[in-house]
UniProtKB/TrEMBL annotation, chains A, B, C, D:
It comes from Thermostaphylospora chromogena. This is citrate synthase (unknown stereospecificity). One of its GO terms (molecular function) is citrate synthase activity. Its EC number is 2.3.3.16. SUPFAM superfamilies: Citrate synthase. The lineage of its organism: Bacteria, Bacillati, Actinomycetota, Actinomycetes, Streptosporangiales. Gene3D superfamilies: Citrate Synthase, domain 1 (1.10.580.10), Cytochrome P450-Terp, domain 2 (1.10.230.10).
Length: 264, 264, 264, 264
């Protein structure tokens, strides 16, 4: 049947005595020698990251792991309250909020930057002035088409998102401040000329730029935000077991429910 | 209103200029300084792991990250095929298979070992003979009640699961071969006397024992298998984009569908 | 290849000109002639329900469709807030709360009754006295083993759950007040002798008894609660679009968050 | 606190003696008197459908309930295989495939038709010639912008989708063949002039047109496909318990896995 049916994969394989992951012997070459973040990068990119790439990548995962009581964390805790027998269900419920609005910025920003770079003819800019010109063109075009510029502005961090300068510094230290991060910085410099006010470069956006500079697939950047968030959600479920708030959230809504006809 | 309503959390907090995670300044103290696996442990346990604990913990995550085309990986790829616009949905679908049968062994084994240790009166055994006696009692009781002993046996690795000796060695190197791992090894020695045949100690089981020795909550051990699997599922989705198999899986089923009445 | 590979199903089939569902021509024999609830019963049971069975079945679905702002409805609305691009994700998040605690009673009650009837030797009781004796034995055994009796008690309806007498009446009208419902009623009569106080027979429980009397598989009764709840969740998502509360729920939690270290 | 906090809803409410759903007494006015499909329409639209609207609506749900071994049905069965303890997880996994590709056509078609009607100035066309002109403009514009016309074509039903004429006839019988269905029919007549070949009007598309003519919110049409599919998925899970195919699907993939490096 193998002539007819073939399901190729480069991820994993095993026989009676060995388990191969990414072409390496899982037990002999990976366990205890490769970090979890390093393996996650490797699994998606199909190549092992350098130590510098790993440091930037893990800094991004750490930056995105948790934001306290987000709607997704609350949804996960409410689901755990309703179905404590299914940890996987509570985690999944929390991840399902990782869509366009709350976790999408990382991917949207990476894509916005990648598209602007792809649209640029000739060699990449050699200096900040060149990046500023590219940024100005991209922001002006987005403004003209009434599109939001992803990565600009934050509801809480109105002046500066503390994650942004730190991730830029880490990328610089590792020699990984590439075109996406440079363009993102340039957008931070030039957007007031177009938008008429200065907005901070937010953490989700700088993470998207950094992931794109690591050569990770732009269409899956949201996936890394989801991986990071999985750790945060596990933290919320562990805390929900020790100090539950799900029932209080439910009762708060229930006690303040106002029945009002809604004719649709 | 804060007198009436209080939602306490020790996970995260933020104001205009700072983001606090686990009581640390996210940007200044965590990003670039804490690994992702280390943070995941910290989020769940509420305490920062030592370097040795981190190494064992990440070895477990690496061991559990992927097993090739498992039913959950196939389900995630089929979901991505059907709804490529929702990476979070495909990931969630893959995690939802992380239940009793395929990802549950890690948690079941940790709980089985923890219960056996809790049921043991007096100080923990001082030597292998003592652990063997405890193991014999636990296996005999389970056998009497017709309960499976989680962590024994593997469909592919019939003689030895290559992950087991390696994780035991890593735990030993880090001084973290604790009571759960010792009892698990003892079960490996004594079970043939009770079951009449020798089965291998499987990788999912040794991971559960190691996580329990790290002091992580037994009721959430499945959660770590899910975190590890999230990285593997991302790898599958990335590969599905490059070398899709979902459509072939679907067509293979569709072409070989046999319509047969089923009266229920 | 069909000799080797065969995936049998009695559910659906199609060719260029026909779509067959449950052995009937979908377009010619089902659309416009079979109700949706009737089809759902048929799909699960593998047989077409009678009009009386359909009426009882739909009464159960109507009884279980919505309970206002349950934790699952809130989780679905929060997920829709976070990822409005994925209606399927918000619905799935809401359904994932359909586990042991909030939607499980229907299935647990059906199973409790089925087990008690299966454990009973000889012919089914001929009169209420016989059912009372069977109920007394089941309640006494559960009490002895410190097991809860599913279907007893309700946080809001402390005296009587209004759904219970109505569903009993409908089943009686349709000649479908079978052994599970009779035993459930008997439990309502005898439990005070054992528990020392009178609790109402709740709506989720009577629905489980009615579904079991319809011959539906006890291990899937939760699935009907989930089907019913899918309609309710759609109603919540539609209302969330018209009169959103998700953001207010989130902000209520966020504004009243108290950061407190939690050492785990 | 109710001055500050208010969570309005018109869906459900309850006190010790009553449960109100949509402003009606659930036990006294809905159970046994309202069908499940009727209630689902009412929950979303905020108004009770007429008997004719209910018949068309349930015909749509019946048409969309199942398509045999779709990728989503296979994903649900594989998830049930992996986590048989969580029916809600298997259902949710199946629904998560209800995205842009496999279940999205219903919603996309309804929106395409609604946008074309909204873009049309003046009164709605009085005759087929008028609808043909409107259809020609819409198809030509979509073609110019290289957008697909949702609802055209089907991989299996290459000449005619048997559901389409039947749903049109049912809508006509109930006096509910409105603008969306008329425009959809017109697209069926005129598209060959623009596309150069004749494609069938598919069942998912005609269902979207019919739901839009019922006045249901275009942004939630996918939700009705998901409700319908929930019944189909329950049927698959029930059959999976009686005649499992999940393990065979998994083993078929596993046995034909070809390990091939994939450099990403």
């Amino acid at each position: 049947m193998s002539d007819e049916l073939r399901f190729p994969t480069g991820i994993g394989d095993s026989d009676a005595d060995h388990i191969t992951v990414l072409g390496k012997d899982l037990a002999g070459e990976l366990m205890g020698r490769v970090g979890f973040g390093e393996l996650a990068f490797w699994l998606v990119a199909g190549r092992r990251p350098t130590p510098g790439e790993t440091r930037v990548f893990e800094a991004v995962l750490v930056a995105l792991a948790d934001h306290g009581f987000t709607p997704t964390a609350i949804a996960a805790r409410l689901t755990y309250l309703s179905a404590p027998d299914s940890v996987q269900g509570a985690l999944a419920a929390g991840l399902l909020g990782g869509g366009s609005r709350f976790l999408g910025v990382t991917e949207d920003c990476g894509r916005f930057l990648a598209d602007a770079i792809a649209a640029h003819d000739g060699p990449p800019p050699a200096d900040d002035a060149g990046w500023d010109a590219l940024a100005l063109a991209a922001v002006t075009a987005a403004r003209r088409e009434r599109r939001l510029i992803p990565g600009l502005g934050h509801p809480v961090h109105k002046v500066e998102d503390p994650r942004t300068p730190v991730l830029l510094r880490i990328a610089e230290e590792e020699g990984l401040r590439g075109p996406h991060l440079r363009l993102f910085e340039a957008i931070g410099r030039v957007h007031p000329q177009v938008l008429g006010r200065k907005l901070p470069l937010n953490g989700a956006g700088v993470c998207g730029a950094a992931l794109a500079d690591l050569g990770l697939p732009v269409d899956l950047l949201r996936g890394f935000a989801l991986l990071a968030r999985t750790a945060g959600l596990l933290g919320h479920l562990a805390e929900e077991r020790r100090r539950p708030i799900g029932m209080d959230v439910y009762l708060t809504v229930d006690r303040n429910t106002a029945y009002e006809p809604d004719e649709g």
